[in-house]
Recover the amino acids of this structure.
């Protein structure tokens, strides 16, 4: 017998946007509540990681490159966009390979790619590093801020701050990882995990499977997106990640330090590691005053609980990363009036 609401958490920023755009929350019975989790890689990047990128971007003869959303996310005192407007060379790219081309075209400069993302992004960055090594490119570096989603799911499952009954799992990440890591979470924490796509019908199907499992008391991991996700995932992508990166502890906005939840370059690829190449002094970390982004990422608070939301904090003047990112929960709520 289920008491109270069934709370399901989506842990993918694309799901967050799709759920908001489709209005799924409005048609669900009141006994089912959807919670947004730490599925936006831009949002979970810590203040200190942004601070490091900002300090490196200020160094003479450095070209800092990153994805578009990262430009406007503020660290403790500044953002990459602020640095760019003050005359430093900071550029937006669509892939890490673009950064490699910039390095080839500017041999007198040191080109740093600030990499963020989950298991979806890290294989392409690893491939770019392998290509840089093959071509013997000496002025290309990666600032690795990559996260692993499964340690975060474990942290959320153990958390006493928010009740999560089941996880709507990310289709993009699962294309790479396959289903096995979700099986371990379902077994250990007795929480069902269902991998879904991003169409309305995919998400609704995933919700139904989760609710049925919870009602039967038989939690397990399932794939409801078989047109894209295979049981074992993309083994070539997995091997590419493991060839270049090694697991390390990582600090997540809102969730804090999570053991073995990030990636860093192996010693054999240390010549491409921006952390080793650039020794910078970081300012004392300062979170945006009044911003609830950290609590939103944990599923403890909703954007509407924040007194800054829609007033001081808007897409044109964002205070926290959850409003900056195109996959952020606050941006989704603002855009679609959730």
């Amino acid at each position: 017998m289920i008491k109270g609401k069934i709370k399901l958490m989506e842990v993918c920023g694309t799901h967050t946007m799709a759920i908001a755009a489709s209005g799924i929350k409005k048609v669900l019975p009141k006994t089912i509540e959807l919670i947004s989790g730490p599925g936006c890689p831009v949002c979970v990047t810590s203040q200190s990681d942004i601070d490091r990128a900002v300090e490196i971007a200020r160094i003479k003869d450095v070209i800092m490159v990153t994805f578009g959303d990262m430009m406007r996310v503020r660290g403790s005192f500044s953002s990459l966009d602020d640095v760019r407007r003050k005359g430093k060379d900071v550029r937006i790219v669509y892939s890490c390979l673009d950064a490699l081309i910039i390095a080839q075209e500017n041999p007198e400069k040191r080109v740093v790619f600030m990499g963020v993302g989950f298991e979806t992004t890290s294989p392409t960055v690893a491939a770019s590093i392998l290509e840089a090594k093959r071509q013997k490119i000496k002025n290309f570096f990666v600032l690795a801020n990559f996260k692993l989603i499964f340690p975060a799911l474990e942290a959320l499952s153990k958390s006493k701050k928010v009740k999560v009954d089941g996880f709507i799992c990310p289709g993009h990440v699962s294309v790479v990882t396959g289903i096995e890591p979700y099986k371990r979470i379902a077994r250990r924490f007795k929480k069902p995990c269902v991998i879904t796509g991003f169409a309305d019908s995919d998400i609704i199907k995933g919700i139904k499977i989760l609710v049925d499992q919870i009602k039967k008391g038989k939690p397990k991991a399932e794939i409801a997106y078989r047109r894209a996700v295979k049981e074992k995932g993309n083994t070539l992508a997995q091997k590419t990640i493991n060839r270049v990166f090694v697991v390390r502890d990582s600090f997540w906005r809102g969730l804090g330090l999570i053991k073995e939840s990030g990636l860093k370059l192996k010693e054999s690829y240390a010549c491409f590691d921006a952390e080793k190449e650039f020794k910078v002094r970081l300012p004392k970390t300062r979170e945006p005053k009044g911003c609830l982004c950290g609590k939103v990422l944990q599923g403890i608070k909703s954007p509407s609980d924040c007194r800054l939301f829609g007033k001081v904090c808007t897409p044109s003047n964002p205070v926290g990363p959850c409003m900056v990112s195109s996959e952020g929960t606050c941006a989704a709520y603002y855009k679609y009036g959730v």
